[in-house]
Design a protein that fits this description.
The protein has 118 residues and is an all-alpha fold. It is built from 6 helices and no strands.
Length: 118
């Protein structure tokens, strides 16, 4: 049985804010980290007709790290996020199990505010 990842990697951090924890919660809720296993990686390669090494290069994952990801059947969280965005943009119109909005809404969460009027 594979253990779930730490859903709140910034909990207890001296620089954590309510907003940073809210963003962590968003990623935990959409399940980006745990959805990227070796099977999904291979499915993406097949759908795009590219090799594993080519997809690794596209998402800036070293081939050494790729071998580790295959062995561990998981990808680093930042790579999983990039893969999710890449998958949405390249395969989103072909399959229904793609996360359509992987990034948190900056405006909704109060991170993006209108510039003050001059």
């Amino acid at each position: 049985m594979m253990l779930k990842r730490n859903l709140f990697p910034n909990k207890g951090s001296p620089i954590a804010t309510a907003m940073s924890l809210s963003i962590d919660l968003h990623y935990a809720q959409v399940g980006i980290d745990d959805r990227w296993d070796w099977e999904r990686w291979c499915r993406t390669c097949a759908a795009l007709s590219i090799t594993s090494s080519e997809l690794a290069s596209l998402v800036r994952l070293s081939h050494k790290a790729l071998a580790s990801a295959e062995y561990n059947n998981r990808f680093p969280p930042v790579v999983a996020l990039l893969l999710t965005i890449f998958e949405r943009d390249s395969l989103g119109h072909f399959t229904s199990d793609v996360i359509k909005a992987p990034m948190p809404s900056l405006k909704q969460n109060g991170l993006l505010q209108a510039a003050p009027k001059a």
